[in-house]
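Subject: for your reference before the review

Hello V.,

The reviewers asked for a structural picture of the protein, and I figured it would be easier to keep everything in one thread rather than splitting it across files. Below is the amino acid sequence we used in the manuscript, unchanged from the supplementary table.
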Amino acid sequence: MNQKRAPLIGTLDKDTDNGDTNNPSLAGSPGSGSDRVAGQPKRGPSKKYIPVYHIELVRDRVIKVEPRPAIHNSDDVVAILRDELLHADREKLISLMLNTKNVVIGIDVVSVGSLSASIAHPREIFKSAILKNAAAIILAHNHPSGDPSPSQDDVQLTERISQAGKILGIKLLDHVILGELGNYSFANAGRLP
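And here is what came back from the structure prediction:
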């Protein structure tokens, strides 16, 4: 049995010896380093590789909406996202991406959370907006409890996204919370930083 395992351990040691951080190895495990299989030569330094990526935005589906020339207020946001958000059993955070005339050019489901929370970071929120060349965004999410009152986390997220948007040049126009008992708009309440 040990004879069958020796070539595998020797192969794993090769990646450890060349300092290649791109390949996982079993450094520190039995059979690595000084426990090298007899007769296996030590490899010299090899080339390192850097991955090259490309990014693309893929349309998953479409949402049928009444034709709207532009988003003018939170009621327009609610009309577009009501069906998408009010039927969800968990918190769902959505970013509406807008052009310079506030026409919706795309919708990104940023995060699907738990019954009472949705985790989001500015980099995830702005990723699609940057790729889509959006001039502004509107955030929207649901409260499955039905109460649209913003939590402290909602307030903090809105402040962070507003600050990040100022740096990126992509303005946060509103953050709308939808619930069965009504809707809440940070812009309408004058709480948008």
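For the response letter, the relevant points are probably these. The longest helix spans residues 152-168. The CA atoms of residues 10 and 114 lie 45 Å apart.

Happy to draft the paragraph if you're swamped.

O.
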